[in-house]
Structures are given as C-alpha cells and as structure tokens.
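An example makes the point: we print one protein in full, the chain in one-letter code, the fold tokenised, without further comment:
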Amino acid sequence: MGDVHIVCDTTSVDVQGAVNSFDNALRHCDNIVAVHRRHGGTSRGRRFSEVSLDRAVIVLAVAAWQAAIQDLTAALLDTARPAGPTSIDIARYDVVTGPVRKAISDFATPNAQNTRRLMVSAGFDPRPLWTYELAGGRGRQRLVWTPSMVDSRLDEWLKVRHAVAHGHDSLPVVQALLAVRIKGVSRDPSLQLADAEQCVSFLNRLVRLTSVGIAAHLGASLAYPRP
C-alpha cells in the first residue's frame, strides 16, 4: 500500500463544506472502531488480526486531515475571490492565486511544516491557533498543548501513517504511541485501538481549531459537526 494521495475537488468550496467533508471521512474511522469493539467482545488480551483495523484507522484519519487542509485552503481562496466589478478583476485574482491552487493539488505530505506553508501561501497562518488544554488524568494537572508540541505530535502521526502505508512490519518509536509514551517501549512498539482513537481525536481537534479560526478570519459562520 502506497501513501494516500488526495486530489482536491475543483468546485468552489467554503469552510462549512470543508468541515462537513472531513466529518464524513472520519465516520469511516468511527465505523472501523465500532467493528473492532464488537469483534473483540469482552475477552482480554491482544488480538493480532485487529491490529489491521487500527492501522486502517490511522491511514484514513491522516487522509481525511490532508483533504481537510486542501479544502480549507481552497475555501480561503474561493471566499476571497472577487465577484467583479469586471471580469478582468476575477481573471487577475485567478492568475495571482494560480500557484496556490497548484500547491493545493500537489499537497501530499500533510505534516506541520507543509500544512503551515500551504495555508500561509493563501494568507492564513493556522499555527497560533494550535493551543489547547487537556485533562492530565490520574490526578495530574491539566496539560497545555503549545503549537510546537502540536507540530511534533502531528509529525509523529505522519511517521506512523508512512510506516503503515508502506507495509512496514515495525512502527517508529514515537511518543504518539501509548506503548512508547506509557510503557517506555524502545523498539517495535505495538499499535492499539486507543492509539487509533487518539489519532482521530487529535486530528479532529486540529481541524476544529483551524476551521474555526478560518471562519473568523473570513467573517463566515460555521457549525462544527464534531465535539
């Protein structure tokens, strides 16, 4: 299996349409997680065949993130596209934004650096928005995630996706995986259902933060479909 490449739709897109498409894509991840849970039942222990389902969730979630960034960047251009007063104004805008639209189409590795570079080329920097708090758990204080922490975690999930998509037997040793972060595994970490769910949750949070920021930037209304 090679890397998943998404071709952005050429029709006009707005922020609401972008997040709705992302939500639809993540529903496939939700379905796979539900199948995993039903198949596993209540028995304990690792079920090796179900690791394939966890891997599928990672690939689909990252593909959905990639498509969302393409769509949201296109929405930045489409919403700002002039309606006139003359056709030459529209033509000039299309010429100026042509390289950005090509970059949207060519966007294939949605890590933190490439994502920011693409959106900045459309006049919007999402990185300052990538700050949020999470419960610490087990009596620990709440944790504030900074943009640099988000950059690192996003790039880690991209590394996991790359290993899965290329059929590697072993996964990278990254903090995104529970086996590394909690158990201290330093070689060939396992992939668990909880990892797949955390990947979906993380990417959903980034799309929500980014899309809400873009909507405010454009003065557009937005009803985000996921918590």
Summary: Residues 15-218 form one domain. The first helix runs from residue 15 to 40. Confidence is low (pLDDT under 50) at residues 1-10. DSSP finds seven helices and two strands in the chain.
